[in-house]
Amino acid sequence: MMRLLLAIIVSASIDSTTLMIGDQTDMHLQVTHEANERVEWPVYGESLQKDIEIVDKTIVDTTTLPDGRVQLNQYLTLTSFKDSLFAIQPIAFVSGEDTFWSDPMALNVVQPFEVDTTNAITDIKAIEKAPIWWWGIFRWVLLAFGILAAGVGIFFLVRWILGKRKPAEEPVNPELLRPADEVALEKLDAIKETKIWRDGKVKEYQTELTDVIREYISRRFDIQSTEKTSDETLRALKPILVSPQPSAVSIQNGSELYTKLKKMLQLADLVKFAKWSTTPDENESALSTAYEFVKTTTPPQPSPQGREEETPQA
To answer: Which of 161, 206, 236, 297 could form a cystine bridge with 271, CB 3.0-4.6 A?
Structure first.
């Protein structure tokens, strides 16, 4: 239904004028006006009028027509829960000092069945207690015990298999059964005999020399020198060589020995990491320092005479 007043056209229509209680239908509001006109749109809350509720509504959509005019559209979703024939009043649209009205409409809401209001409100059926499903409970308990038994069986099976596969004992390094100084001096003798630095293998020479000293330090002083840098090794040795504790074994000329060892390790680091070139004298001096360090720090061995004196007399 449409009404033309001046340059503004307003219309309001309902998709279905008859519906069952609780059903929904859409109302379409539309206004067409010139581009220079301004129309105030009606604002609705939760109801269109008494007993007609607005379930949902779209935003006001604006469209420009080919002839330059503007068309506004909005949809309201309506419902009602009262059995009645409703007269929907004309809807007002305001533009300036003029008001434009849509045509009145009707909405017929129908009750699909008769309701006897004389009867009291009762439940459709009495409340019943659900029977206990004993077989289902027993099945779940049986499944839980089965899983538990399987887990215990797997545990003992794995334990038995691992027990059958005892790891082979690792062979003990023969060098660890011999005194640290004896092993170190033997390796230093081998280095002295070959003197590979004369063939230009200075890096290999310095590496072998410092490896022997690091292994000796690790065994003699319980300092993991093979896993430490030269600075870390020297820091760990300094309290032992330079300023030993009263309870420590006294090392003769410990401060001087520490200085020589420091010079030897630093020279080796320069050769290995900075491609430093050494002189024959420096190579010989490094070997001499290694010998001196091992011999000086070797713990004194008790003499046979001393051991006999310590043996108690029968």
So the answer is: 206
The CATH number covering residue 37 comes to 2.60.40.10
Q: Mean pLDDT across the stretch 207-220?
A: 92
Q: Are 76 and 54 in contact (CB under 8 A)?
A: yes
Task: Quote the domain boundaries for residue 273.
Answer: 174-297
Same domain, 90 and 182: no
> How many other C-beta atoms can be found within 10 angstroms of the C-beta atom of residue 268?
24
Looking at every residue in the chain, the average pLDDT score rounds to 83
**Is there a domain that residue 27 lies in?**
yes
- Which positions ≥6 away from 290 have C-beta within 8 Å? 188, 209, 212, 213, 264
Rounded distance, CA 62 to CA 73, Å? Answer: 7
In a domain, 149, yes or no: no
Place of tokens 């469209």: 63
CB 48 within 8 A of CB 54: yes
Triad 31, 34, 39: Cα angle to 5°: 50
Compare 121 and 76 and report the one with higher pLDDT: 76
Q: Which residue has the higher pLDDT, 24 or 166?
A: 24
Taking a C-beta distance cutoff of 8 angstroms, is the pair 292, 259 a contact?
A: no
End residue of a domain, out of 110, 131, 161: 110
- Same domain, yes or no: 105 and 186: no
CA 23 → CA 38, 53, 160, 229, distances in Å?
A: 35, 11, 73, 86
Instruction: Kindly tell me the number of DSSP H helices and DSSP E strands found in the chain.
Output: 8, 12
Q: Residue 202: is its pLDDT beyond 80?
A: yes
Last residue of a domain, one of 60, 88, 110: 110
DSSP 51: T
- Kindly state whether residue 101 falls inside one of the protein's structural domains: yes
Task: Specify the pLDDT at position 303.
Answer: 54
Place of tokens 């001393």: 306
Structurally, the chain folds into a number of domains equal to: 2
* pLDDT number for residue 132: 80
Would you place residue 309 in the very low, low, confident or very high pLDDT band (cuts 50, 70, 90)? Answer: very low
pLDDT tens readout for residues 158-179 = 888 887 665 555 665 666 678 9
